[in-house]
Amino acid sequence: MASLITCPHCGSRPKEEFSIRGEVRSRPEPAAPFETWYRYVYVRDNPKGRQKEYWHHVLGCRRWLVVERDTLTHEVYGVTDAAAYRASEVKEAAE
Amino acid sequence: MTASRLSSGGLVDRSRPVSFTFDGKSLSGFAGDTLASALIAEDRLLVGRSFKYHRPRGVLTAGSSEPNALLTIGTGARSEPNTRATVQELYDGLVAKSQNRWPSLDFDIGAFNSLLSPFLGAGFYYKTFMWPKAFWEKVYEPFIRMAAGLGKLTMESDPDRYEKAWAHCDLLVVGGGAAGLSAALTAGRAGLRVILADEDFLLGGSLNASRAAVGGVKAPDFAANAVSELSSLANVTLMPRTTVFGWFDDMVFGAAEKVQKHVAEPSHDRPVERLWRIVAKHAILATGAIERPLVFGGNDKPGILTASAVSTYVNRFGVTPGSRVAVFTSGGTGYRTAHDLKAAGIEVAAIIDTRDAAADRAPDGVKVHYRGAVVDTMGGKRLTGIITERSGFEEKIGCDALAMSGGWSPVIHLACQRGAKPVWSAEKQVFLAPESDPRLALAGAAAGLETLGEAIADGAAKAKAVLSALGKTAATADVPEVEEQDFAGHQPVWYVGGARSKAFVDYQNDVHVKDLALAQRENYTSIELTKRYTTSGMATDQGKIANVNATGIVASMRGVDPAVVGTTTFRPFYTPVSLGVIAGTSRDEHGRPVRRSPLHGWAEKNGAVFVEAGLWYRSSYFPKGEEKTWREAAHREVMAVRKAAGLCDVSTLGKIEVFGPDAAEFLNRLYCNPMLKLPVGKARYGLMLREDAMVHDDGTVSRLAENHFFITTTTAMAGEVLSHMEFYHQAQWPELKVRFVSVSDQWAQMAIAGPKARAILSRVVDADLSDEGFPYLSARDVRLKGGLSARLFRISFSGELAYELSVPAAYGEAVADYIMECGAEHGITPYGLEALNILRIEKGFVTHAELNGTVTADDAGYGKMMGMQKPDFVGKQMATRFGLTAADRMQLVGLKPVDPKNEIRAGAHLLREGAEPSMANDQGLVTSNCISPVLGHPIALALLKSGRERMGETIIVFDRLRGDEFPAIVCPPVFIDPENERLKGEAQVSPQAKEEASR
Amino acid sequence: MNGPFTHRHPLDGAISANPGRSENHVTVLPEPMVLSVAALPGEEQAVAATLGGVSATALKAVGPGEWLVVLEKADLSLQRDIAERAGALALVTDQSSGRAVLRLQGPKARAILAKIVPLDLHPEAFAIGQSGNTLFAHVSANVGRIGEDEFEIVLMRSFALFAFQELMEMGLEFRLTAGFAT
């Protein structure tokens, strides 16, 4: 029928407004070893349980979101804008 | 007459008679009847034949759990099989037909199955139709299919409309009985946004079948008063005739509303059914309980009903299923029914009570048989009596109806649909809902409570809990007093021993106790396996009547507690939901959106034949005069472009504006070819890769200003490319100062191609279009004569001198008309997708037929374009990996047949001469093909292993599907003008055009 | 300055010339002005400040730092003003041709929209001036509340006819009528 995702910009919206890209992966540095790139491009963990995923609010604000949810129960733990997520990740890496 | 309408009583409107037909016979009832109550009033207890044994069956219940009274309602395209008569609201002109009988309900040939019943036990099909294997498809299955099944579908298209809608509320109350009304009143009075949904057309639930006094008035009046107060509250929405069938993630509930299922001719302005997606902050399930039948020998004769159903028919509908009714019960419910019958003046033959003794008081003059058991029943198509046994003594009791009660099972289905398992209550001997979500509560009988008073108090209490969770307070408690005789609970008797004939557990699938026993003996002991082996609980009623009894019986057989056996899995839908309402409006032209180009009107005027391309309607070709095939028209259009000029609608291309100080850097990372140094005013072909180095899309990149770009994508990938850009900007490189928006719908875009294109456009565009003034790959904002802002690009997808002109979409049609007018003297011709495709194949330009997701830039012949010296771009890292640079990669080539009569067709595979056709010998495949109007013979583009090294080789084009197998020559993929001389068009602009352009 | 070229609305021909008007009505703007304003990252607040002159109901929320300015007809001075003040910090594009603007008004406006959009449009949940991009029939549209019982729907031009027909179909039971604004 439906399930809902709370977009940080638009509020609660049905999943039909989103498209899902799968597990969150930050792109390696260009100079990263081939093995790192290989894992980034081809390998997914596909956990049964908690996972961070990219969801695109394609029929709404067109922002990419990071949705942390349980792949088994669909319990959603949190939704953040992907740009903010990436920025905080870069900041953490620098610290 | 045995079953009949009582002279008074009930909630039906006796001033409004309603006529209907059953199996062709005209009958009548009253407004407020269900089809079942009206049939009972007409003494029609036999309403169907059972699924397997074709046994005569009658109405068993008065609600949605009904397993027997399944009828086909309506005629022609509106006929709907397997409708439960017990919930079908009666209406004038209703046409009902019984099912699963031939030639008639009274005389049914299929009943001979009953004689074969010793051979038709559980697992019969699995064991019997095993051998010979070939018989399965040809003999057994068609035979079984013909014999099995209930109602038949009409093969006509459904003439009615269906809709879907969303609703939002603080509190959803499912069920409008005592607990539900009480919960809705408490929450509604406190101002919550409340939705109250109930499957019945009359709200009130069991209150409408009760003779109790509630708050000093009769129970049905209490319900009516509550409904009237609720409808006066603006914050409360009442949804009768609405079944909440599922509880989904994030507190979304699915509900099906029967909007016009109670009229003979639905109005076309409204749907017949509506699917609701109800988003609730909290929900209270006040779904009541289903009465369990007792499982005893011969328990399926017409005239045997559950006790609560008998009470409902007598009290709510003013009808009785018999004139002398016996009661068989394991608890107090049967006594209440006995009192209801007595109060209506109906004779109660006896009460057979399975208990040793009971505090329940029988009506005066009615004999109670304690420790009693019904072991068999008498009668054929109608109950005539029962045989009871007590301490070895047998007694026959004459009766024309039997009210039976084996206790109650709370309706917990919705609460168990999301994976949580029901919990067995040893105290109450019922399965209760698990606690799985604090936002979902059960109230009243659904929570295992037994009396009206408890239900009303519980509904109010659960609503108060919701109020406090939402930070609101309830008005002071106002729970009405209930005056009702007390009846004791039930001592479950899962199976009444000593049965002398079949004791049915699942009426609809004809599963009896011995079937369950067989399943245990053959080791299908898990309840999920028992279910599948015997089909118990697998009918359209989903075991509402059968499942708890089946669990109890299996537990007894295995000598364990019902908690050990557990239940089968609960899934949506609670009751059957029509496919029509699930589709909603999404059928026919509403099934998917249609996209129209701003030049649609222009194309129509020019006689276009349209083709669906994704959601778009695009012009395929423009037939003229005697032309009979697309090819004739397309070849004329191609030759017009090669010799004079053509106009093609390319508005469907994706168009994106990219802006910001980092715009160039962003595009440089997105495209595999360099973009940083693209000069202002210039366009460049661009190739986007995926991170795995396969080509994602191609298009053009134009630099309008230092920080301002305009890019195009292919039609098919427009949405994908925008998402791809958003992903890289937002999720990977948010530090880049760039912003982009789609302007696809803002601009009408047309290609003007051919040697006369410049001469024609010079009359339209206010700019110098000479090779010096507007060289190949120019891209600029321009104005049309008269002042309209436009964008002009000198790019070509045909190999000819060509331009693409963008104008605001609202003016697209007028501008296209004007260009056609200006080009008439030059022979301008509209051309469509087919001609476009031929033009590009002749020039070896690729589309997604070639860029199919397995093709790298190098495979497509664009390897040298990749800016490998750039520090980074999407796809760079994988582009050099082993496998993508292998020598035997399939590469783009051209093909010409050795015999020009052989047309090479896309999809064909390529083989070496003399090689066996096999996967191992596969050399590649044909991706695009046409007959070249310029060359006069078939040509094709193909992907061929090591193709660029194999020029001149003869290869076999092989297509077993279409029977093709012939030789072709491998050649470069560019068939005409490899030097690109034609891009320049006519050597010089005509003096006239030059003069006009300079004005 | 559009020269000799006539303007075409995507709903031309789909609305009868003399449609009548029931209490639930769709008013189609024949030549609205629609500007898209998308702020560069980090410039969202500065750009928002430049849009102060646009009324709350004319300024549509699209996403973070992204708006549509929707007016009944072209206002060249406002357009110039926005381009001048926000032009360096935001991508300002004219989408007047690329969008169709419909105003749905009437006591049953919410009941009709409930069949098309998933938003909670209850007066307390969706205030006047509130707006957002959302699923509309099968496509994306911007839906905003511009009056007590009045909603403005901004559709992509290519989908406008389809979406309009869906809207009218859902309004059948409430006798929904439609006409161009005069």
Radius of gyration of chain B: 39 Å
Q: Based on DSSP secondary structure assignment, what is the total number of beta strands of chain C? A: 10
Helix content of chain C: 10-25%
The largest interface is: B-C, 57 and 50 residues
Largest sheet of chain C: 6 strands, mixed
Helix content of chain B: 10-25%
Sequence stretches where pLDDT stays below 50 over 5 or more residues of chain B = 987-999
- Determine the structural class of chain C based on helices, strands and strand pairing: alpha+beta
Strand content of chain B: 25-35%
Fourth-tier CATH superfamily name of chain C:
Probable tRNA modification gtpase trme, domain 1
Spatially, the strands of the biggest sheet of chain C line up as: 7-8-9-6-1-10
Task: Set out the fold topology.
The complex is a heterotrimer of chains A (about 100), B (about 1000) and C (about 180).
Chain A: E1 4-7, E2 11-14, E3 19-23, H1 34-42, E4 50-56, E5 64-70, E6 76-81, H2 82-94
Antiparallel strand pairs in A: 1-2, 3-4, 4-5, 5-6
Chain B: E1 4-5, E2 13-22, E3 25-31, H1 35-41, E4 46-49, E5 56-58, E6 70-73, E7 80-84, E8 94-97, H2 124-128, H3 135-147, E9 162-174, H4 178-189, E10 194-197, E11 213-214, E12 217-218, H5 219-232, E13 236-239, E14 242-248, E15 252-258, E16 273-285, E17 289-291, E18 304-306, H6 307-315, E19 319-320, E20 324-329, H7 333-343, E21 347-353, E22 368-369, E23 373-378, E24 385-390, E25 393-398, E26 401-405, E27 408-410, E28 423-425, E29 430-432, E30 440-442, H8 452-469, E31 482-483, E32 504-506, E33 511-512, H9 513-521, H10 527-534, H11 547-558, H12 562-565, H13 579-583, E34 595-596, H14 600-605, E35 609-613, E36 616-621, H15 630-643, E37 645-649, E38 654-659, H16 663-670, E39 683-689, E40 695-705, E41 708-713, H17 718-732, E42 739-742, E43 747-753, H18 757-761, E44 779-783, E45 789-793, E46 802-808, H19 809-823, E47 828-830, H20 833-843, H21 876-879, E48 890-897, E49 909-911, E50 924-931, E51 938-945, E52 954-959, E53 964-971, H22 991-998
Parallel strand pairs in B: 2-8, 9-10, 9-16, 10-13, 16-30, 18-26, 20-21, 20-26, 21-22, 34-36, 37-47
Antiparallel strand pairs in B: 1-19, 2-3, 4-5, 6-7, 6-8, 11-12, 11-31, 14-15, 15-16, 17-27, 23-24, 24-25, 28-29, 32-33, 35-36, 37-43, 38-41, 38-42, 39-40, 40-41, 43-46, 44-45, 45-46, 48-51, 48-53, 49-50, 49-52, 50-51, 52-53
Helix pairs in contact in B: 4-5, 4-8, 6-7, 9-10, 9-11, 15-20
Chain C: E1 25-28, E2 33-39, H1 44-50, E3 59-63, E4 66-71, H2 76-86, E5 90-94, E6 99-105, H3 109-113, E7 131-136, E8 139-147, E9 150-156, H4 157-170, E10 177-180
Parallel strand pairs in C: 1-10
Antiparallel strand pairs in C: 1-6, 2-4, 2-5, 3-4, 6-9, 7-8, 8-9
